[in-house]
Design goal:
Layout lengths: L10 E2 L13 H10 L4 E7 L5 H11 L3 E11 L2 E8 L6 H26 L6 H5 L12 H10 L6 H9 L14 H10 L3 E4 L14 H9 L4 E5 L5 H14 L2 E4 L19 H10 L7
Parallel strand pairs: 1-2, 2-3, 5-6, 6-7
Antiparallel strand pairs: 3-4, 4-5
Bound molecules: zinc ion (2 copies).
Length: 290
C-alpha cells in the first residue's frame, strides 16, 4: 500500500473580516481557517489593509500561515471588477492614495444612499455607523446599511433589506465610482504586489462579464492571475477561464469569499494549491506570515 498525503489542504486566498463586510474579527478569520484545517488563509477586505496587523498577530499565535491582501473595487468599460491585490507593500504611496480616494468615494456613496432611504425610512448615518464593528478603519458598504435597516425593524434580515431598496435595481441605489482596473493593476504592481481578478465571471454581479479581450488587456498591464475557483464562476466559465489563463500565462487561484455569518460562503469551499501560493510568495513584496 502506498502512503498518501492527506494533510495537503489548500489555501483559501479570499476572506473578509469585520474591517469590511465580514462579521468576524481578523482573529476569528484565522481561527476559522485553523478549525477547517486549511494550509493557510488570506485576509482580503474591501479597499483596506486595516485588518492586517490583527490577522498577523493571530496567524503567529495560532500557527496558521497568512497571505495579506485587499480586494480592490475597479471598473472595466462599465463592468464592476474586483481585484485581489496580494502581498503588496502597504507603504506604497500610489496604492495608498488610490485606497484613500476609493474609500472617500465609497463613504460619499453610502451617505447618499442613506439620504435617499431617509425620504421613506427614518434612518440616519449614525444608525449605519452603529452597525460598524471596527470603527473608523472599517470600509463601510451596503451590508452595513442593510444591517441598520434590520436593526431598526424595517426588514427581517439583510437579504430582505437589500431587495427592492439598495440592490442594483432598487430605487435608493447609487452607482459606484471606481478606478479603472488597469490603474489598479498598475498600482498593485507598483507596490510590489500580485494582482488577481476576483470572481472574473460572476454573472450575479454584472449584466455583462469581462471578455477575453478585457482580460488579455489587463494581462498586458501586468495582471498575475485569475480567481477561477469561486462559487460565482459557473463550471463552463471556469473552463473558459482555465483556457484563458493557459494562453495568457496567468496563475489560477481559488477562494471562498468568506464573510463569516454575512454570506453563506463556507471558508475553504474553494482553495488555491501550494505551488501557486509559493509562486505568489515569490512575486510578492512582503512575505507570507508563517
Ligand atoms: Zn468580490
Ligand atoms: Zn470578496
Amino acid at each position: 500500500m502506498t502512503a498518501r498525503n492527506v494533510t495537503n489542504a489548500g489555501w483559501d486566498l479570499h476572506c473578509h473580516s469585520a474591517y469590511s463586510d465580514g462579521t468576524e474579527s481578523p482573529e476569528g478569520l484565522v481561527l476559522e481557517a485553523r478549525r477547517r484545517g486549511l494550509a493557510g488563509v488570506g485576509i482580503t477586505d474591501h479597499d483596506t489593509w486595516a485588518g492586517w496587523d490583527e490577522a498577523e498577530e493571530a496567524s503567529r499565535r495560532y500557527g496558521v500561515p497568512l497571505v495579506r491582501g485587499t480586494e480592490i473595487t475597479a471598473d472595466v468599460d462599465g463592468i464592476c471588477v474586483h481585484m485581489l491585490g496580494l502581498l503588496y507593500s502597504p507603504d506604497d504611496e500610489v496604492l495608498r492614495s488610490l485606497f484613500e480616494t476609493t474609500r472617500e468615494n465609497r463613504t460619499k456613496r453610502m451617505k447618499k444612499m442613506v439620504e435617499n432611504l431617509s425620504a421613506d425610512f427614518p434612518i440616519t448615518w449614525d444608525d449605519v455607523i452603529a452597525q460598524v464593528k471596527e470603527g473608523e478603519a472599517t470600509t463601510i458598504g451596503r451590508p452595513h446599511i442593510a444591517d441598520a435597516m434590520v436593526a431598526l425593524g424595517f426588514f427581517p434580515n439583510r437579504s430582505a433589506a437589500f431587495a427592492g431598496t439598495i440592490n442594483k435595481n432598487g430605487p435608493y441605489y447609487v452607482p459606484i465610482v471606481s478606478p479603472d482596473a488597469r490603474t489598479v493593476v498598475e498600482a498593485v504592481k507598483h507596490a510590489g504586489g500580485v494582482a488577481v481578478i476576483a470572481h472574473p465571471a460572476a454573472t450575479s454581479r454584472n449584466k455583462r462579464i469581462l471578455t477575453d479581450e478585457h482580460i488579455a488587456g489587463l494581462a498586458q498591464a501586468g495582471l498575475d492571475g485569475l480567481e477561477v475557483f469561486h462559487r460565482d464562476n459557473s463550471p463552463e466559465q471556469q473552463q473558459r477561464l482555465l483556457g484563458l489563463a493557459r494562453d495568457l500565462h496567468l496563475l489560477t487561484t481559488g477562494g471562498s469569499d468568506w464573510h463569516g455569518a454575512g454570506k453563506p460562503n463556507v471558508m475553504g469551499e474553494n482553495t488555491t494549491d501550494a505551488a501557486t501560493v509559493e509562486e505568489i510568495a515569490r512575486r510578492g513584496a512582503i512575505g507570507i506570515v508563517r
